[in-house]
Amino acid sequence: MGADDRIERAGALYERAVFGGDADAVTAADRELDAVEADLALARGRVAHARFLDDGHESPHELGLFERAAELYRGLGDVRGEAEALFWIGCFHQVVRHDDAAAVPVLEQSRGKAVHAGDTLTASYALRHLGIADHRAGRPGSAREHLEESTRLRREVGFLPGVAANLVGLAYVTAEEGHRDEALKLLDEAGSIAEASRADGVLRQVQEARANLGPRKVR
User: Fold this and answer.
1) Is 174 in contact with 187 (CB distance < 8 Å)?
2) DSSP per position, 27-39
3) Number of neighbouring beta carbons within 10 Å of residue 27
4) What single-letter DSSP state applies at residue 216?
5) Can you give the C-alpha Rg of the chain in angstroms?
6) Which residue in 28, 65, 113, 131 has the most C-beta neighbors within 10 A?
7) What Cα–Cα distance (Å) separates residue 155 from each residue in 84, 89, 124?
8) Could you say which residues of the chain have pLDDT below 70?
């Protein structure tokens, strides 16, 4: 049900409460509007995050929007929505604040709830960012496990730009494990997928990774 439908339904419930004397209709109307508010808060938070990625300035509202969305989804019993909101809270702490200690527990919650709700895409996001935290903490084995599982889930749902982004991460992990040629092959695959998906942002990540790893050795 879309936002317009929910608002219209809340209006009908208002009529039922005021003119029909149905006190329960007020509670039902609140739930409809809470769902609208949760979706809007999540959407606004994501836009604020995109703006941060563009200009590097932290929004004073981003975290609060994601926390409000999580609170509302939890009250509604919407596990799928709560899982997504929790992911974005973890992402905020990790990407904006560079605070993996705060991010990891929330990302773990997000993954667990996403799996419970059957939300494969959100689970893949949580796994990716748990992998990033592992990589930063010097745990390449755990980073690889999280990134590979995230990649498997993304292939499963056809999220190809996300697959390419994960392959870039796996290339860095693989290179640090001493397998540079294998890492460059992962970048080749990432580049092909990103190009086919017209994911220019990921293509830039591939190019940056190639520059960091250097050209292949001539044999």
Assistant:
1) no
2) HHHHHHHHHHHHH
3) 10
4) P
5) 21
6) 131
7) 19, 25, 10
8) 1, 215-219
Total residue length of the chain: 219
Nearest by Cα to 119 from 82, 73, 67? 82
pLDDT tens digits along 159-174: 999 999 999 999 999 9
Q: How far apart are CA 106 and CA 70, in angstroms?
A: 11
pLDDT reported for residue 218: 37
Could you report the per-residue pLDDT of 193-211, keeping only the tens digit for each?
A: 999 999 999 999 999 999 9
Distance, in Å, from the CA atom of 184 to the CA atom of 170, rounded to the nearest integer, reads 10
For residue 102, give both structure tokens.
Answer: 């705060």
Residue linked to tokens 């994601």: 66
* Alpha-carbon torsion, ordered 119, 121, 127, 131, to 10 deg: 180
The span from the CA of 34 to the CA of 37, in Å, is 5
What confidence score (pLDDT) does residue 215 get? 61
Structure tokens at 161: 């730009």
**Contact between 100 and 94 (Cβ < 8 Å):** yes
CB of 31 closer than 8 Å to CB of 1: no
The pLDDT assigned to 219 comes to 37
Helices 140-157 and 160-176 cross at an angle (nearest 10°) of: 160
